[in-house]
Design brief:
Blueprint (H helix, E strand, L loop, with lengths): L1 H66 L5 E6 L2 E6 L3 E7 L2 E6 L4 E5 L2 H7 L5 E5 L2 E4 L3 E5 L2 E4 L2 E4 L2 H14 L14
Antiparallel strand pairs: 1-2, 3-4, 3-7, 4-5, 6-7, 8-9, 9-10
Length: 188
């Protein structure tokens, strides 16, 4: 009788232990999956935090540029003399080797020993746009765009694919409407 009682008592307990063991194995897999997802979420959160900090820095830089007083001229060294050039007189700027040539509305040019990147930092970003690695254009002086080239005065200036988006973005903010007019294209 003792063995019959022990079987009756221990069989359900043994069955319960087997069920609990099966649940523990199933839950351990779920637990591992949840732990993996949690670690992955933490890594994504850290990466997102770094991206947010980077974007905050970029926004702050843009705010500083927008609130910075804009000058009405730049000063460049031409023939050993510091020369003040009004921004309204500048049509476009072209890099030629180690020099840059500033083309003015009166037809004159100024050549100075400076990189285009250095001069670009001095120019207001809402008036001047880089259109090519060797060219910067005064957006207010743009007469038209034809066949992927920019018309400024009588010059035809290239527009590279890498600069195209920023150039058209600036044009859209300027609300410039370019009128179609027949023109003779002259390459400079």
């Amino acid at each position: 009788m003792g063995t019959k009682v022990s079987r009756r008592v221990f069989a359900p307990i043994l069955g319960g232990i087997m069920v609990l063991t099966a649940l523990a194995v199933a839950l351990s897999d779920e637990w591992l999956l949840a732990a993996f997802k949690y670690r992955e979420a933490q890594q994504l959160n850290e990466r997102l935090g770094r991206d947010i900090e980077s974007l905050k820095g970029q926004v702050d830089a843009l705010r500083r540029r927008e609130t910075a007083p804009t000058a009405d001229s730049i000063t460049v060294k031409v023939d050993l003399v510091m020369t003040k050039v009004p921004l309204d007189d500048i049509l476009y700027i072209k890099a030629e080797g180690d020099y840059i040539v500033i083309h003015k509305a009166d037809g004159k040019t100024l050549m100075t020993l400076m990189t285009l990147k250095t001069l670009e930092k001095q120019l207001p970003f809402d008036r001047f746009s880089r259109t090519h690695r060797s060219w910067i254009v005064n957006v207010d002086k743009v007469r038209g765009i034809r066949d992927g080239k920019i018309l400024v005065d009588d010059a035809v200036i290239p527009l590279s694919d890498s600069c195209k988006a920023a150039f058209f973005e600036l044009l859209s903010h300027k609300s410039i409407f370019l009128k179609a007019e027949p023109t003779v294209l002259k390459y400079k």
